[in-house]
Amino acid sequence: ALLQILDELMPHDACVAYLDYIDYATTWDASRIQTTPNARRSREWQERRREVNMMPAFALSQPGLKVYRLSQVVLDPRQLRDSEFFRRYMAAEGWHYSASLLFWDAERLVSEIVIRRTAEQGDFTAREMALLQRLHPHLETTLQRSSAVERRAGSAGAARPDDATKHNAIQSLPGELTVAE
User: What pLDDT, on a 0 to 100 scale, did the predictor assign at position 104?
Assistant: First the structure.
């Protein structure tokens, strides 16, 4: 549902949601990773990409940052296009632009949504970034509640909670979920 919302509101080529990072400072491992089909990559691919990606250092240097785009990380477009990261992991996949939404617990980055675009789609406009900024608190609430459901369902004994276990976990959150949720 999260990816569908972004599909409707924000034109993009690919989207990845890293939900509940294990330790963002050292790895991109997350308890759940949701992607559009064209963005699914192996763990090894992700780790090789992380080695040359300048975005993690940028995000970690600004605790509390909620929304940013790749063009804010490397201000000189030519320098960005010449970087190993861009050549090997963006342009090689057909992506030229990226925007990220970050979700924090104090100074710890817990989740992230990355939206990627092709050259034809262009960089994210100021208006689109403002929209992402406005969506951020709603997405954050959704991610927090989803994580709470997963934790409760997981503590019910299932290794990977099935739909019935998740339903029971949701039913146990009457004061924490609205009727619509």
Answer: 95
